[in-house]
Fold this protein.
Amino acid sequence: MKYSKRLSSMQESPIRKLVPYAIDAKSRGTKVYHLNIGQPDIKTPKGFFDAVKNFDSEVLEYAVSPGIPELIHAIRDYYTTYDMHFNDSQILITNGGSEALLFTIMAVCDPGDNILAPEPFYTNYNGFSQCANVTVKPITTKAEEGFHLPSKEEILSRIDPNTKAILLSNPGNPTGTVYTRAEIDMIAQIAKENDLWIIADEVYREFVYDGLEYTSFGNIEEIEDRVVIIDSVSKRYSACGARIGSIACKNTGLISQILKLCQGRLCVATLEQIGAVELYKTPTSYFKEVNNEYRKRRDVLYDELMKVDGVICKKPTGAFYIVAKLPVENAEEFVVWMLNEFSDENETVMPCPAEGFYATEGLGRDEVRLAYILNEKDLHRAAILLKEGLEKYVTLKKSEVLAGSEA
Amino acid sequence: MKYSKRLSSMQESPIRKLVPYAIDAKSRGTKVYHLNIGQPDIKTPKGFFDAVKNFDSEVLEYAVSPGIPELIHAIRDYYTTYDMHFNDSQILITNGGSEALLFTIMAVCDPGDNILAPEPFYTNYNGFSQCANVTVKPITTKAEEGFHLPSKEEILSRIDPNTKAILLSNPGNPTGTVYTRAEIDMIAQIAKENDLWIIADEVYREFVYDGLEYTSFGNIEEIEDRVVIIDSVSKRYSACGARIGSIACKNTGLISQILKLCQGRLCVATLEQIGAVELYKTPTSYFKEVNNEYRKRRDVLYDELMKVDGVICKKPTGAFYIVAKLPVENAEEFVVWMLNEFSDENETVMPCPAEGFYATEGLGRDEVRLAYILNEKDLHRAAILLKEGLEKYVTLKKSEVLAGSEA
């Protein structure tokens, strides 16, 4: 039997690809600290569970296709606090940020079209695009430059007649980079001058550290008809399993296109929407605490990383990821080695190789993404293990090279 | 700003298109009996809610991408009672039957490919296919023949080199038709001889009346590597708002292709999966009761319809829909008239025009789909209203024609 070409060419999730090695390590009794996945350990606000538990209808009916009005209102009010003013018909509820991205790509691109995205990028951008027979054209950014954007000329040189949109996550996954106001303005200008959509993945909006100013694409009035804001409760409220995302866009024509897709899949889970309404009532003090917690974790991990010779990365200022260039040739081999060969007091750590976050062949082979989603104590231990492992691995590789040259 | 062609050409949901007229009628104080949507009023088994309420983790984490093992086991065991034997890795949990269909179409078709489907068909088959730039080629079936399949020759004549699959719902939505063993065998032979996938939408499997034998495509061994079974808890357990569906397929190559899509959207809502495990423990007595209830409802609606001159339909034997040919030229106009002009004791009824369930231009214009999802008393009243409205409308139209010919 034949499968479609569109899926055959799709890569396996780089985040999940090495999981079997972790399972093996655990079966040998080794404790594995996971820095490979973005599953936070922060408590989900209790209001979510209370609302779900208080549901007292006897029939679990379909919700309406665009999303329940209570949740749409809540999201509208939430945006108001960021000085973004949508009306209810400009917001659609989706099955997580994932569906929001897939639907938006389908609505702005036909097969053969392409989308620009700064690389390294969230690996599923590729997956969603491939489903839709759309290509992601990378704008390469570098660890040495803290993954900030290249010049306007360089970005312009990537645009062709089939380019329909620029897709960016800000703060960045996997980079943790928060774009400056100047960068946001540059992208806005490029989009305007070249009639492109801006797909702004802002699910990490609250995770910005060091007192940095955050600018949303939703704050720039002159491009408001071309900006689609992708959002999700997953990280903001530590509610990854709820699968509640949203699309906000002032271009009502686009919203009515996407609404057809929403109608096609009927609705998003009713109970999860009811729970999510309560998430949006979470007091801002929650974000302050969570923010402070993540900043501390970032510092723990970053400080430890900086102690290793040859590690290159700028201190990230957002989200909860660090992409670091390691003094190794092949980060995937290093991660496999960490899981198969390395242990200290029967413990090891699992980073995520970063190559899968790049679209350009060969880039990122010596890089890893580290999610700082463990509590401070565990994270400190994980960082020490990473440092130890890395030093041991580098020494081992050097001795192999020496042995090779002597042979 | 430009939108994609793929969505621009997608029709609005025919089921939801006339909803504004119903809202207007209600705002004038008219009670509207809804026969237009498939939202059952049967109680969701309590186990679902109990399981959700008993969830006691403090973090709502991602579930695993293929679906939680407990739910996959439960579905595997469920299939065993129908003499279908899958192993756990041959089942994937999806966001409702909708996602199961979309993912399957994406996995077997590239842009430009087509899928055969007996028409009238579930309108979203078209939507899901258009997302994937795939065409649905209809195999026309007729009210006069109870929407049973045409000859093998006629079906073969629809196949071309880009045909990748046959997609059927059995029992049928919107037709309520249950295919005979001979029809199932014919489709199996056609698929085998022409190397096609069979996408079997069997979400109404339990809704078969009059002691009829039901054959699943999963029961025919010689085609087991080419059958994909789409399933859902929505109708079976009256849990439409849970959005839990599944794909079962013995072709593990196909499953691993679709798993990439599952990984792309990370997971299906965690709590809903936990609840759904309990649904699968529902005793079979539940189905017997529900089945009996729907059979009674079908009889109420069908018997009343048959009293109207010129209505054509065979008594359906499955699901909870009837497609009836009415003695009107344009069923959509009739439905709008029922909502705008007709009322009896301040009550009216809303059928769903069936034209949107056909791919062939012009077919189904004089047909409606009726969902018998109201309790017997309400349904009886709705059927009476439909009969009265129809008779009045037919008389009115006749007098208009007469007036026109006299003028």
About this structure: The CA atoms of residues 308 and 390 of chain B lie 8 Å apart.
